[in-house]
Amino acid sequence: MLKLKRILKAVFLGSWLPWLLLITFTAYILFAPVRGIIDPVKVPQDDAFLPEEDVQWWYWTGHLESKEGKKFGFEICFFTFDSFFFFKDQLIQAAITDVDDNSFHFKEYVRTFSLPDEMPNSFSLSSDKHNKITAVGSGGYDTLHSEVDNYILDLKLEPVKDDIIHYEGGPHIYRMGGFTYYYSRVGMKTEGTIKVGDTAYDVSGITWFDRQYGELYKAINTGWQWFAIQLDDNRQIMLYDINGAEDRMESYVAITDAKGETRDYGPEDFTVEILDHWTSPDTGIVYPNGWKLNVKGEEWIVEPMVKDQELQGQHHFWVGPEYWEGASLVKKPNGKVIGKAYVELNGFKKE
């Protein structure tokens, strides 16, 4: 009798488990948001988490200076991945570049099986239950907070120029596969405080915000050199230089003038010459570390403020790159400083 009960139990479980999995999968197919191409970019509507997209991010980089003259760079970014039925994760990263101290500080969080709340025209993002990294905002009126090592950052942002809508609102189909929607806020007024140990500093400066979403896995795997340049003459330049000659056509430049008007240039209109390299002592990756940019005959030299600004993935059993993202100076060829930049280097490998 006991043996019969065991057989019946095994049959019961063996019969219902496949049905349970089938019902779960069917429910997902029926009620999950449709993936892929959606309407062109609209702001502030698309500041919100978009459940239709596989990959998306909210990305802030900026330059700050205290009343005492201390200089800092900062980065706060939230990545969301919602793919393959089971891959529903967030990667949150924050970094502080202490220019005077010649040091770089980085923190990362991974939230597995967790996606941001859907909110109309806005976002409220957080790294963990302790809110070590947060971003709340809409339409460019953002509040940022991060705690990295002994640096605590609190900032208020507001837009100065209209949003820059790349690719005419998208979707832009990549040559290497996938697609993107992409817009930027290139010169956001920034004020707040940064606490270093027990000392708090009032800071002000300028921030660059990027919002991108779509099917971005192939682009991430290809890699790029990306420059967010903010010149003292109130021009902002986004230069996106894709890795690999076969995908060169994806490279382009967007220049926003002092009046807020933006003009795009294709790969035939600019060059990027690498002037120096830096090898990470931690990962062994060799990164470019100094550049000469030429856009339609106008030249800029871009130099990192700190050599080591590498973000090293601290997660396990999770896909995510090591990359370099750093505060930099922009100079004329004669050495005169004429602005600042943030540079991102993704897809570089060990030699």
UniProtKB/TrEMBL annotation:
InterPro entries: AttH-like_dom_sf, AttH_dom. Keywords: Membrane, Transmembrane, Transmembrane helix. SUPFAM superfamilies: AttH-like (SSF159245). Coiled coil: none annotated. Residues 56-215 form the AttH domain. Signal peptide: none annotated. It holds the Pfam family CrtC. The chain crosses the membrane at residues 7-31. PANTHER family: BLL1000 PROTEIN, HYDROLASE. This is Carotenoid 1,2-hydratase. It comes from Candidatus Falkowbacteria bacterium CG10_big_fil_rev_8_21_14_0_10_43_10.
